[in-house]
Write a structure and sequence with these properties.
It is globular, with a radius of gyration of 16 Å. It has one helix and 21 strands.
Length: 194
């Protein structure tokens, strides 16, 4: 089943799971949501984003991809998962243009993931900032850490060498969330007028 609507293109996966999108969210008409995807309230999903929950584990089961309330998934972002593992994006979190989040993966609340960054098989704690073109792979990044642009954080990374999120970086993250929350409201009003 494929449905094109004010919530983008909604597709069932081969198992028959269909995305569930909160009616107070906005999904761009060019975005594709497939399978066991749950989108909470006031989420912005931008143009050409792909959120695809269609792989299963050895028993034919899968966990959902969950996007928390007031978060934003920007243009060209890809969210997918290996072998039915869960992907969870917390509340008030920004996943910026063309980032890739590949599960299993947990991203906390009030997190900023920068342009073209890649997250795989990892946990990113609440309040973290991962700047553009960075990679977080196979590790747990505790709350409040700042990953500079182009850095690679992995299981052998010594966390004591990583800076904590500054007030300025935190304010930037909050501003991105505010802006995208405004876009949800603005685009939904435009749809109501047409």
């Amino acid at each position: 089943m494929v449905t094109s609507s004010v919530f983008g293109t909604i597709r069932a996966n081969p198992r028959g799971d269909v995305p569930v999108v909160h009616p107070d969210s906005f999904v761009d008409p060019t975005a594709i949501l497939c399978g066991k995807v749950i989108v909470h309230e006031n989420v912005f999903i931008g143009p050409y984003a792909v959120i695809r929950a269609d792989e299963v584990d050895m028993d034919g089961d899968m966990q959902p991809i969950v996007i928390g309330a007031h978060s934003n998934i920007q243009d060209g972002v890809v969210i997918h998962s290996k072998s039915g593992a869960a992907v969870t994006i917390g509340a008030h979190t920004s996943i910026a243009h063309r980032a890739i989040v590949h599960g299993p993966c947990t991203v906390g609340s009030r997190v900023f993931i920068g342009f073209n960054s890649v997250l795989f098989n990892c946990e990113v704690g609440d309040g973290c900032v991962v700047r553009h073109n960075a990679v977080v792979d196979g590790c747990t990044l505790p709350p409040g850490f700042y990953v500079p642009s182009t850095e690679r954080i992995g299981p052998r990374t010594e966390l004591s060498t990583i800076a904590r999120v500054s007030v300025q970086a935190s304010e930037f993250s909050e501003d991105v969330v505010r802006t995208n929350n405004w876009l949800v409201e603005g685009y939904r009003k435009l749809l109501q007028q047409s």
